[in-house]
């Protein structure tokens, strides 16, 4: 179900997550070839994409305007949400370039040239382009094409590609797989056909017309008609354009949408294109957006009063008071920001995100508001939108700022896997960490002498293995135990919760928090059942 209160729309800059998950029974009958690549971990691909993305952004101009980039991100996330499992946090970038191009890099980085966004005739066409690029990432075409030894040099070779894109050189600037020409890792036609098939399935599941991509391909062919030397790499490295169009049309006959696409995304495309046209005309990456704060002294007084009420512990009273002036004074971004902060403190994360979005609608220049929005999205279980918000926050700060550092750390935590495997046990810690699989249920009786938690850290978090702390939190929220995690080798850590005569364990749902520098990296739950009473023995 779509949460209309917090949408990334043109009016509000953003939307919350659209319903995630696959719509099965699309009638495709298509079974992708093996997507498991033993030579590469997903963290390898994430790191490669992150490194390459940094290099690309040094060479090209990225349009980060929150209306344009927010729209592309929302559409892309809607498509990516149709895929299960989904190991990557997808990023969608608009590159300022005149070619009809788009391309993807490992780990979920999708780039579309501004000219492509300007020329698509419908959301269905744009969805088709994005769906194809998402498929290259999801099918691990990079890792299936390259030997693992080639990974270290790939990010360095991206520099040359970025320069080509910046220079708008048709033969080098990379659309689609033009990137891979300059990187010398061109995909096979088998992979291109697979990307077409997978992309069409996900586009259809999201409710869009998969055959619309052929309209865009035909547009490219007509644009370059009579000039074969400037045929975009997007077509040159795929199956022959005509054959590709016929294949997509044939596949579309077996695909049947099970949902209606988001009407807001459909209606907003012309407005986004007009906004992008203005950005290109003025040579800017983003337009200033904001209104002046209210100078009404009554507003100031009410906001101060709300702060005092909240400090006394009455957040609901403060929210009620702010809600009244929010309806009267809708042009002051401080009001929805303050409301968002109170909602976040109350654990109402979806509502907090909606309020922060309203503040951004009124003033999109404040990095702190984007950062707070990212925190709200993260706590609401929407990591894809959290990463986008944190990136927007980082873009609005200097490289030396603490907020930039905090935003990048949040992005790092959401991008990479902190824990590869974990579990609870009632034996010793040394025995527990040898367990290869988690127990079916993390549930124990008080009759056991101790509960053990173990975890195998993800590759990018092993450098912090000696710095983690573990909190055992009782059902009431009180911290029962907080100690440094015990380290076992390079990637294993653990912790033990003891039950003894001096401390009676509390029955109920406990929470375990893995903490690094006072920052909660992961939370897990374990249930402790009351110790069964002994039945009276008959006389």
What this model shows, in words?
The chain is an alpha+beta fold. The protein folds into 3 domains: 7-12 and 30-282, no CATH class; 297-415, Tetratricopeptide repeat domain (Serine Threonine Protein Phosphatase 5, Tetratricopeptide repeat), CATH 1.25.40.10; 419-529, Sandwich (Immunoglobulin-like), CATH 2.60.40.1930. It contains 20 helices and 13 strands. The protein has a 5-stranded mixed beta sheet with strand order 6-13-12-8-9, with no helix packed on it. Strand 8 and strand 9 (479-484) form a beta hairpin. Helix 1 packs parallel to helix 6 and helix 4 crosses helix 9 (212-223). It is globular, with a radius of gyration of 26 Å. It starts with 41 loop residues before the first helix and ends in a 10-residue tail after the last strand. Mean pLDDT is 77; it is low at 1-38, 169-186, 226-239 and 436-440.
Short description:
The chain is an alpha+beta fold. The protein contains 20 helices and 13 strands. The strands form three sheets. A five-stranded mixed beta sheet has the order 6-13-12-8-9, with no helix packed on it. Strands 1-2-4-3 form a four-stranded mixed beta sheet. Strands 5-7-11-10 form a four-stranded antiparallel beta sheet.
């Amino acid at each position: 179900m779509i949460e209309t209160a917090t949408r990334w729309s043109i009016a509000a800059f953003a939307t919350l997550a659209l319903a995630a998950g696959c719509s099965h029974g699309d009638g495709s009958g298509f079974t992708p070839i093996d997507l498991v690549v033993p030579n590469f971990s997903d963290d390898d691909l994430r790191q490669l994409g992150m490194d390459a993305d940094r290099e690309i952004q040094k060479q090209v101009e990225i349009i980060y305007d929150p209306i344009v980039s927010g729209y592309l991100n929302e559409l892309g996330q809607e498509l990516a949400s149709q895929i299960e499992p989904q190991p990557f946090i997808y990023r969608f970038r608009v590159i300022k370039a005149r070619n009809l191009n788009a391309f993807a890099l490992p780990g979920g980085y999708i780039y579309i040239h501004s000219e492509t966004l300007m020329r698509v005739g419908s959301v269905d066409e744009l969805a088709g382009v994005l769906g194809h690029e998402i498929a290259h990432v999801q099918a691990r075409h990079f890792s299936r094409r390259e030997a693992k030894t080639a990974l270290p040099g790939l990010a360095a070779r991206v520099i040359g590609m970025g320069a080509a894109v910046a220079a708008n050189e048709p033969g080098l600037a990379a659309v689609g797989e033009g990137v891979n020409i300059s990187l010398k890792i061109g995909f096979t036609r088998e992979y291109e056909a697979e990307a077409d098939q997978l992309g069409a399935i996900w586009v259809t599941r999201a409710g869009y017309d998969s055959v619309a991509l052929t309209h865009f391909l035909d547009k490219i062919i007509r644009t370059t008609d009579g000039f074969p030397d400037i045929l975009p790499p997007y077509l040159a490295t795929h199956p022959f354009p005509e054959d590709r169009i016929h294949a997509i049309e044939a596949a579309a006959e077996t695909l049947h949408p099970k949902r209606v696409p988001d009407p807001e995304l459909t209606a907003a495309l012309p407005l986004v294109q007009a906004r992008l046209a203005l950005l290109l005309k003025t040579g800017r990456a983003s337009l200033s957006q904001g209104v002046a704060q209210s100078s009404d002294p009554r507003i100031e007084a009410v906001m101060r009063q709300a702060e005092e009420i909240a400090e006394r512990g009455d957040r609901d009273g403060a929210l009620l008071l702010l809600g009244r002036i929010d309806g009267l004074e809708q042009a002051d971004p401080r009001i929805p920001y303050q409301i968002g902060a109170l909602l976040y403190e109350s654990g109402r994360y979806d509502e907090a995100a909606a309020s922060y979005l309203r503040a951004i609608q009124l003033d999109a220049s404040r990095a702190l508001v984007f950062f707070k929005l990212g925190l709200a999205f993260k706590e609401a279980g929407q990591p894809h939108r959290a990463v986008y918000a944190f990136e927007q926050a980082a873009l609005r700060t200097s490289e030396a700022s603490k907020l930039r550092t905090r935003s990048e750390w949040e992005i790092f935590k959401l991008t990479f896997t902190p824990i590869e495997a974990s579990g609870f046990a009632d034996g010793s810690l040394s025995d527990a960490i040898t367990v290869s699989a988690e127990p079916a249920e993390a549930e124990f009786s008080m009759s056991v002498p101790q509960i053990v938690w173990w975890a195998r850290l993800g590759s990018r978090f092993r450098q912090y293995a000696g710095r983690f702390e573990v909190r055992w939190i009782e059902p009431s929220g009180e911290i029962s135990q907080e100690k440094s995690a015990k380290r076992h080798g390079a990637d294993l850590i653990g912790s033990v919760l003891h039950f003894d005569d001096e401390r009676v364990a509390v029955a109920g749902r406990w929470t375990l928090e893995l903490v690094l520098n006072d920052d909660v990296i992961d939370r897990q739950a374990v249930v402790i059942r009351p110790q069964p009473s002994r039945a009276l023995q008959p006389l």
